[in-house]
Amino acid sequence: MPTTLPRDAGSTPQTPFLGVLGTGHTVSVSSVTLRPGSHRKGEDGDLAPSPLAARWRAVLGIGLAAVLAGVLIEGFRVGVASTVPGTPAAAHQVVPKNLVAVGADLVPNPSMLPAATPGLAIDLHAWGQFPRLADVPVTIGTGASAHEGHAQLVSLRHTRTGGVWFTVPVSAGRWYAERIDVLVRHLDPGAYVSVNLEWYHLEQDGVSEPLGASVTTLHHSGSSPVTVRQFGFSPATADRAHVVVNVVGGGEVLVLGAELHLAVQR
Fold first, then answer.
1. Kind plus residue range of the DSSP H or E element containing 210
2. Residue 70: exposed, middle, or buried by beta-carbon count in 10 A (0-12, 13-18, 19+)?
3. Domain 23-265 classified CATH 2.60.120.260?
4. pLDDT (tens digit, 9 = 90+) per residue, 37-72?
């Protein structure tokens, strides 16, 4: 029987151009080698598409048109800084200088440790148009610094969109720093990976109201992982964040780690 993986009631990942101003950049990190023993889940029919998928695609289409016009989102090639100036009915937020991450990591499973049911890491949620998911054992680094770990492999067929996220409680009116390590193994023509820091407010009826997002996009695949870092300011009514990796248009990405910290000026 088809299985629908857990999803916050009433929530769906937000479109790239709904965003509180954030900054993102990528840097090269150590090499990653896949080891035998990965477990896959998510053949067609195992994961139902988002109930708002049609609406999401329509809004995304509008956003992509605006991207082409150069007015909403400034995507980037690996290694070049990007900003996301679009905001939903809110003034643009200017990122303060000298922001640094502080305190403990708020992500419940930053190392992508596998769940008891193979195919999805502990505490990680999935959405989209039938993504294929896998717990993948990896060796990170080379030589004396090499160590074994786990990663989450997210695959979508051509033209399809979907992804994974962690839900993290947050306080309103604070700056946060997101870090996500990914290896983009393949992208179909025109596709990209979207790394989001999304804000939500949980209503009394259990529906999560989207409040905006900081977004960084990756448009090239490669054999080396990258680290995406970006800051975001939680809106006045925010009580939770989603730390998100999406594949838009088909492709395969390996999620190696995820972190979310409070950020302060130093």
1. strand 208-218
2. exposed
3. yes
4. 555 565 443 443 333 343 344 444 434 443 333 322
Q: Which tokens in the block code for residue 132? A: 């294929």
179 closest CA partner among 78, 102, 257, 94: 257
Q: What is the amino acid identity at position 69? A: A
- How many angstroms from the chain centroid is the CA of residue 113? 17
SS (H, E, C) 111-162: CCCECCCCCCECCCEEEECCCEEEEEEEEECCHHHCEEEEEEEEEECCCCEE
Residue 88 has, within 13 A of its CA and on its CB side, a CA count of 18
Q: Where are the domains of the chain?
A: 23-265
The Cα–Cα gap between 97 and 78 comes to 23
Burial letters 23-58, b for 16+ CB under 10 A, else e: bbbbeebbebebeeebbebbeeebbbbbeebeebee
The pTM assigned to this predicted structure is 0.71
